[in-house]
């Protein structure tokens, strides 16, 4: 970024600023130094120099302007008259910050751990569970979706420099070598002579050398809407308040002016503000800091618990694989997967509610920040007030009357038939250039738009309400000539033909009361002109001070009936060479105006105070006006005094008053300029009610930084470009939607659509509600984490079966945390004391009840985990002596069905929990009618096994294997994956087309069993069956010349029954043995 540079301030010859170079190591320090320089007050002395000194300084002829060669030289060294954009962050970097920053990184770690756990299981197991894979995918999806949403929200804000660029004029009229030429505004250089007229935008900071009725609108810069007069005269030490300087990007609303360019581009006042606003680093929001603290806390707890139980599981004899799975499970159980999505959804819903209440939120985190606000630095004009000047009081006939601004004039406190009031109203209506805009006949007078400055518009509306149509009054008293208001005379004068005198004229004048009074020798009382004696002058002075003390702008009014013999109709009045009297006039009265406070503001300020929020007024207005408004809206409470009030009450000098005795404080900008940071901090600490008046843009930023040094969360309101640095530096910047400039709206985090301070309080209420509910949300999330962790701990320590799987944890986190979270609801949810304990106990109660219903009382579960998980265990007894068998869904092919012999109910074997891979002599328990029978009449893959001579067991043959029985019955069992089970004379099968040879006395397996049965020969006798080799993990079980086998780790124990050799095998119904 090009460093801001100012021309020399000592009056010496101007030389273009040289560019500076930066190295990587000192870039940050250089930037901080530049920002500190920008925060200082504008240090110019060009407004104090005479025209000759100014010409010598900038080497310019004040009549011919710069030469083309000199202009080109300055342009080459200073650069174009444009604002330098700051370095921008690439969009992909912004997106990655949203995707991997803050709480998202914890979820990414959880997702990676889940993928790691799944990878370990896949490498160590033939058929690993997919739970960890699903959990990792969902965690990644949650982070990506919320990251995209946050990036979209951020992309809509932070376009500050684009708004500044829109304010730069495109063309400028300059004088070079004695000729007027139209050039691109970027080519304007320091020293150029520039001319502006009504409707033009000022192309650079200019020192006025000549003007005619020039007024500029500084609202884009200062936020103050009333046009400011510009003239060559030096009127104020502060260059921002003197009338002989025009500023870059302000609008000339009327008149013409010629000036010398004294600053261009980044060196203009507007350029300094733009550089300051775009260069300030925004601090982290309270919610971001809270979430970061929460992440550190949760991560520490998760890692500590994970490592602790990893070590404990190794000590208790678990394998390293099981220990790693435990470690990952505990860490993932601690990650509140649903919190990020919950916070985003909650902030979005609250932002929509706030938008319906005229608070447009640009940055979602600003919703919660507004609720954390402890100090509000509010502008006065348009925020605390209506931004509409209104006549408040009148003084005539030696009495102060309150103006009636109601449409029906029901609140009038004076006699409208008074001739003095009629004369005062006529002056206010005729000596007035404001007019109503056309097409507003059906709109109430107070809400009509006008063309003219704010004070004259207020007078126009007051007279329209009280006396009727001002236009008719002006038509009956046509204007002959006028002298516009100027800073030298400080009055406005016009001469009109008199309605009641066909030959006469009336001169009417208004202006600064003291200037009007000194031109008068008489005063109008009760319709009669009387001499203006000392008594009436004292009465005038008392009324003037009283109205001024109310913070109102006071104007004086006088008139003079011109004698018809000297000034008949047709007389040529000359406003330049005045040929009519401007003294010895008749004083008529005073009228005072004020920008009235908004009706809802006092109540809103009271709510802020009761909520512990300090409201500070920061305005560019006069201290008396600022203090009056502050008292009117409650920023300075009734009964609280400033140092000046205490001094006046005790009749002692201000210096003798202890500042700490005053709760209220009014600080002038000139005093603030000389204060150190420590002095400002002392004021902010020791005074609860503070008003800053006549402040500059840099001072507003300094005030915000001072409040932040006190640990306050600061909200700042503003509408002008000058407010943009403070808006950006504040914890939450609030711009005005109606009167605010584009730059202020871009710099702000929130926009008030109705420009009303009361809407801020509404936003604070919403923000505090979400602040409380977000705390409850975090507590609510943590309450689900404790019940998620506890099952893992009891699983390891107490050796009970695992009550809560990974997918179940995911359902709890993304389901209950989001759907049931209190923050989703706009109501204030009640506090849940010890909620984690209630949830944990409720979960374990349900777990133990379900297992007790199936035969396992809580005492039986302790220490049973290893036998429960071991699939080779087929004789696990429950609390009632029932034996439980291990089942495997892969033992039956898909589509296999079981049919009850009693009720003919058929159910699938591949998914149900009832009976998988049930073999010989295993009791079947119907899921429909609870009838229990032996294994006869089983339906298997649509092929029914039937043996006419014998009651057979469930025959399970491999593909294309034929079984021949000694009783001369043959049948087949096609497409079955289970190992052969038969009756009487045992026959075994191996995989893929093995022939079986069976005799009554012996059974010999002639073919090699598969890779798991290494050429094992089976010898069978009438009374015993001996297996000569172990068959992998699934051992053959035999009895009474019967062999039993199980594939895929499904082990079903055999009911030992002895039968005679060669006799048909009949089963006796055993006691039911439910599967696990």
TrEMBL record:
SUPFAM superfamilies documented for this protein: Calcium ATPase, transduction domain A, Calcium ATPase, transmembrane domain M, HAD-like, Metal cation-transporting ATPase, ATP-binding domain N
Reaction it catalyzes: K(+)(out) + Na(+)(in) + ATP + H2O = K(+)(in) + Na(+)(out) + ADP + phosphate + H(+)
Similarity-based family: Belongs to the cation transport ATPase (P-type) (TC 3.A.3) family. Type IIC subfamily.
Keyword field: ATP-binding, Cell membrane, Ion transport, Magnesium, Membrane, Metal-binding, Nucleotide-binding, Phosphoprotein, Potassium, Potassium transport, Sodium, Sodium transport, Sodium/potassium transport, Translocase, Transmembrane, Transmembrane helix, Transport
Organism: Meleagris gallopavo (Wild turkey)
Keyword check for Transcription: no
Gene Ontology annotations of biological process type: intracellular potassium ion homeostasis; intracellular sodium ion homeostasis; potassium ion import across plasma membrane; proton transmembrane transport; sodium ion export across plasma membrane
Protein name: Sodium/potassium-transporting ATPase subunit alpha
């Amino acid at each position: 970024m090009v460093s801001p540079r100012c021309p020399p301030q000592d009056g010496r010859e101007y030389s273009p600023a040289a560019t500076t170079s930066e190295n990587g190591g000192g870039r940050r320090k250089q930037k901080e130094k530049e920002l500190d320089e920008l925060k200082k007050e504008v240090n110019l002395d060009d407004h104090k120099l005479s025209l000759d000194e100014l010409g010598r300084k900038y080497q310019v002829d004040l009549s011919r302007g710069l030469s083309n060669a000199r202009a080109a030289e300055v342009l080459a060294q200073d650069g174009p008259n444009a604002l330098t954009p700051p370095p921008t962050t690439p969009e992909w970097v912004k997106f990655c910050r949203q995707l991997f920053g803050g709480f998202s990184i914890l979820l990414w770690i959880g997702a990676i751990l889940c993928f790691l756990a799944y990878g370990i299981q896949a490498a160590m197991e033939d058929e690993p569970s997919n739970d960890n894979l699903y959990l990792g995918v969902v965690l990644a999806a949650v982070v990506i979706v919320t990251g995209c949403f946050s990036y979209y929200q951020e992309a809509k804000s932070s376009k500050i420099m684009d708004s500044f660029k829109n304010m730069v004029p495109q063309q400028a009229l300059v004088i070079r070598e004695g000729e007027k030429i139209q050039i691109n505004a970027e080519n304007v250089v320091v020293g150029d002579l520039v001319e502006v007229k009504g409707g033009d935008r000022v192309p650079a900071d200019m020192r006025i050398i000549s003007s005619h009725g020039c007024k500029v609108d500084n609202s884009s810069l200062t936020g103050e809407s009333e046009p400011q007069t510009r003239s060559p005269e030096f009127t104020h030490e502060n260059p921002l308040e003197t009338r002989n300087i025009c500023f870059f990007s302000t609008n000339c609303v009327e008149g013409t002016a010629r000036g010398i360019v004294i600053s261009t581009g980044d060196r203009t006042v507007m350029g300094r503000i733009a550089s300051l606003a775009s260069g300030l680093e925004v601090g982290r929001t309270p919610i971001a800091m809270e979430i970061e603290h929460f992440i550190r806390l949760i991560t520490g707890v998760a890692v500590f618990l994970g490592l602790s139980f990893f070590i404990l599981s190794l000590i208790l004899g678990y394998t390293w694989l099981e220990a790693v799975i435990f470690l990952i499970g505990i860490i993932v159980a601690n990650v509140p997967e649903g919190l990020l999505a919950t916070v985003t959804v909650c902030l979005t819903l609250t932002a929509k509610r706030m938008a319906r209440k005229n608070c447009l939120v640009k940055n979602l985190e600003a919703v919660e920040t507004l609720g954390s606000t402890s100090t509000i630095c509010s502008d006065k004009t348009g925020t605390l007030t209506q931004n509409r000047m209104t006549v408040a009081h009148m003084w005539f006939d030696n009495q102060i009357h309150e103006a009636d601004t109601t449409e029906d004039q029901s609140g009038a406190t004076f006699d409208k038939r008074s001739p003095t009031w009629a004369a005062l109203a006529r002056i206010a209506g005729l000596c007035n250039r404001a007019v109503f805009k056309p097409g507003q006949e059906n709109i109430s007078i107070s809400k009509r738009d006008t063309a003219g400055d704010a004070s004259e518009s207020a007078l126009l509306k007051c007279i329209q309400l009280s006396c009727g149509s001002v236009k008719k009054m002006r038509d009956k008293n046509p204007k002959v000539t006028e002298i516009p208001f100027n800073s030298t005379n400080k009055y406005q004068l016009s001469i009109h033909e008199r309605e009641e005198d066909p030959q006469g004229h009336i001169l009417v004048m208004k202006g600064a009361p003291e200037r009007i009074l000194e031109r008068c020798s008489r005063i109008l009382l009760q319709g009669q002109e009387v001499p203006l004696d000392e008594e009436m002058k004292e009465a005038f002075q008392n009324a003037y001070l009283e109205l001024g003390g109310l913070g109102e702008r006071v104007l004086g009014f006088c008139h003079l009936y011109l004698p018809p013999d000297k000034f008949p109709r047709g007389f040529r009045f000359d406003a330049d060479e005045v040929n009519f009297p401007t003294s010895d006039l008749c004083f008529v009265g005073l009228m005072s105006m004020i920008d009235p406070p908004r009706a809802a503001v006092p109540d809103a300020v009271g709510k802020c105070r009761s909520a512990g929020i300090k409201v500070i007024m920061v305005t560019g207005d006069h201290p008396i006006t600022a203090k009056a408004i502050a008292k009117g809206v409650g920023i300075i409470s009734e009964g609280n005094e400033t140092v000046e009030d205490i001094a006046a009450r005790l009749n002692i000098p201000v210096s003798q008053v202890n500042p700490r005795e005053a709760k209220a404080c009014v600080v002038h900008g000139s005093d603030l300029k000389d204060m150190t940071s420590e002095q400002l901090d002392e004021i902010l600490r020791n005074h609860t009610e503070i008003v800053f008046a006549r402040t500059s843009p840099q001072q507003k930023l300094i005030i915000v930084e001072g409040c932040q040094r006190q640990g306050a969360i600061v909200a700042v309101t503003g509408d002008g470009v000058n407010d943009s640095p403070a808006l950006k530096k504040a914890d939450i910047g609030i711009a005005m939607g109606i009167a605010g400039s584009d730059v202020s709206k871009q710099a702000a985090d929130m926009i008030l659509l109705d420009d009303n301070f009361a809407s801020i309080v509404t936003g604070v209420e919403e923000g505090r509600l979400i602040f409380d509910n977000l705390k409850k949300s975090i507590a609510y999330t943590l309450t689900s984490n404790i019940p998620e962790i506890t099952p893992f701990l009891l699983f390891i320590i107490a050796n009970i079966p695992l009550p809560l799987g990974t997918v179940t944890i995911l359902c709890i986190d993304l389901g209950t945390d989001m759907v049931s979270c209190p923050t989703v609801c706009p109501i204030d949810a009640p506090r849940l004391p010890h909620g984690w304990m209630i949830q944990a106990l409720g979960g374990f109660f349900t777990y133990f009840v379900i297992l007790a219903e199936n035969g396992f009382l809580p005492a039986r579960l302790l220490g049973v985990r290893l036998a429960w998980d071991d699939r080779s265990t087929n004789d696990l007894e429950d609390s009632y002596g029932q034996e439980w068998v291990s089942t495997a869904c892969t033992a039956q092919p898909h589509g296999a069905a079981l049919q009850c012999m009693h009720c003919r109910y058929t159910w699938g074997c591949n998914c149900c929990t009832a009976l998988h891979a049930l073999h010989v002599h295993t009791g079947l328990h119907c899921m429909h009618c609870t009838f229990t029978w032996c294994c006869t009449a089983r339906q298997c893959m649509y092929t029914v096994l039937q043996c006419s001579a014998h009651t057979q067991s469930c025959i399970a043959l491999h593909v294309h294997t034929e079984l021949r029985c000694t009783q001369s019955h043959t049948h087949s069992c096609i497409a079955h994956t289970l190992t052969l089970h038969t009756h009487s004379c045992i026959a075994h099968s191996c995989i893929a087309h093995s022939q079986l040879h069976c005799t009554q006395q012996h059974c010999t397996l002639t073919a090699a069993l598969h890779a798991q049965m290494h050429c094992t020969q089976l010898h069978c006798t009438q009374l015993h069956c001996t297996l000569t080799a172990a068959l992998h993990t699934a051992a053959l079980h035999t009895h009474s010349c019967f062999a039993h086998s199980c594939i895929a780790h499904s082990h079903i124990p055999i009911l030992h029954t002895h039968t005679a050799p060669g006799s048909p095998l009949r089963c006796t119904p055993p006691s039911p043995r439910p599967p696990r």
